[in-house]
């Protein structure tokens, strides 16, 4: 044969054996999908294995795979083979967002040994590093369930979106959505749960529109406390933190005067004081006064949240004006809202 043809290096042939053996196990024996990394994008990862459920669903979960092939990686003594690689690859591997399976392949008997990279098991020195791979840990169907655990739990995210659609269909003109903050969250200054709930509402424009003006945020666990809400120190502290993490109060602005989230948030955070009033007391009510400047600051925060929503979804100026007017009337009911020019 003429010597003018390129020759395939023996090392390349051996490496191909390892990749072929491992990919066959993942594809045929496990029923998963082995995606080989293109050579131009190979920075130390030979491929990725996509998890496929027993029902045939490709879930989007994957783990990385790096394969070493040849007798030099196989130990004649002891209970371990040793995967060896460069220091640069170690840093790269440990920063991957997915687990990485290290594989050593014996090309003569077409057997693969595997281990998941564990930083705590790395044997490191200035010239490189190595990682133990148990000789008894052979990549075969018996190991499938063990390796499957490294993909993590599969979540049906579509169910969340379907729940949003069911909620959207249930909202009518007279629907009233109430989110109650438990006393434990109040005491622990936990606003995370409320933040998550609101994030769920505002990720969908149709849901945001449907909820707007129908959301009431309350507290529970203080039903038998005779004090007014703004007189309870721990609620005031929680409300002040809530204002720092939440600005979607426009969702609560509406025409339901009996349940005003914006009003009780204002009384708890705007220097509110109870004012003696015989006439109010005779009607079973309490007269309170808040610091006007602090009320204006809170109203501006409400407006800012509304403006962000309008910019995000492209809501009209008319809609912005209408909701702004509702916010203003809840905080400054005796002062007319400026007319549009």
Chain-wise SSE layout:
Elements lengths: L9 H20 L3 E4 L10 E6 L5 E12 L10 E6 L1 H8 L5 E7 L4 E6 L6 E3 L2 E7 L9 H5 L9 H13 L6 E6 H5 L4 H11 L2 H7 L3 E6 L12 H13 L15 H9 L3 E3 L2 H5 L4 E3 L2 H22 L3 H15 L10
Parallel strand pairs: 3-5, 9-10
Antiparallel strand pairs: 1-2, 2-3, 4-8, 5-6, 7-8, 11-12
Helix pairs in contact: 11-12
> How many domains make up the 3D coordinates?
2
Query: What would you report as the Rg, rounded to the nearest angstrom?
Result: 32 Å
Give me the strand/helix succession: HEEEEHEEEEHHEHHHEHHEHEHH
Number of helices: 12
Globally, the shape reads: elongated
Task: Classify the beta-strand content into a percent band.
Answer: 15-25%
Biggest pleated sheet = 5 strands, mixed
State the separation between the terminal residues, measured CA to CA: 90 Å
Helix content: 25-40%
The total count of strands amounts to 12
Q: Mean pLDDT, rounded to whole units? A: 87
Multimeric organization: single chain
Structural class: alpha+beta
Order of strands side by side in the largest beta sheet? 1-2-3-5-6
Low-confidence stretches: none
């Amino acid at each position: 044969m003429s010597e003018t043809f390129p020759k395939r290096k023996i090392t390349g042939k051996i490496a191909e054996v390892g990749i072929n053996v491992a990919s066959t196990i993942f594809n045929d024996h496990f029923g998963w999908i082995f995606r080989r990394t293109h050579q131009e994008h190979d920075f130390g990862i030979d491929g990725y294995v996509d998890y496929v459920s027993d029902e045939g669903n490709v879930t989007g979960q994957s783990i990385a795979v790096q394969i070493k092939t040849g007798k030099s990686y196989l130990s004649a003594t002891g209970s371990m083979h040793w995967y060896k690689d460069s220091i640069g690859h170690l840093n790269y591997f440990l920063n991957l967002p997915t687990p990485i399976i290290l594989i050593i392949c014996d090309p003569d008997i077409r057997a693969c040994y595997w281990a998941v990279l564990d930083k705590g098991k790395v044997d490191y020195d200035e010239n490189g590093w190595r990682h133990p791979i148990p000789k008894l840990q052979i990549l075969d169907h018996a190991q499938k369930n063990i390796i499957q655990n490294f993909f993590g739990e599969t979540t049906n995210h579509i169910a969340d979106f379907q729940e949003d659609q069911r909620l959207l269909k249930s909202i009518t003109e007279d629907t009233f959505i109430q989110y109650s903050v438990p006393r434990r969250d109040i005491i622990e200054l936990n606003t995370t749960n409320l933040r998550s709930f609101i994030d769920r509402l505002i990720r969908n424009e149709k849901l945001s529109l449907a909820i707007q003006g129908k959301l009431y945020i309350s507290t529970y666990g203080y039903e038998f406390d005779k004090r007014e809400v703004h007189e309870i120190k721990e609620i005031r502290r929680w409300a002040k933190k809530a204002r720092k993490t939440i600005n979607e109060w426009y969702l609560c602005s509406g025409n339901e005067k009996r349940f005003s989230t914006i009003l009780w948030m204002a009384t708890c955070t705007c220097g509110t004081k109870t004012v003696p009033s015989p006439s109010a007391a005779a009607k079973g009510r309490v007269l309170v006064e808040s610091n006007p400047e602090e009320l204006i600051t809170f109203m501006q925060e409400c407006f800012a949240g509304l403006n962000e929503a309008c910019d995000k979804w492209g809501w009209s100026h008319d809609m912005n004006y209408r909701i702004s007017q509702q916010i203003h009337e809840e905080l400054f009911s005796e002062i007319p809202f400026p007319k549009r020019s």
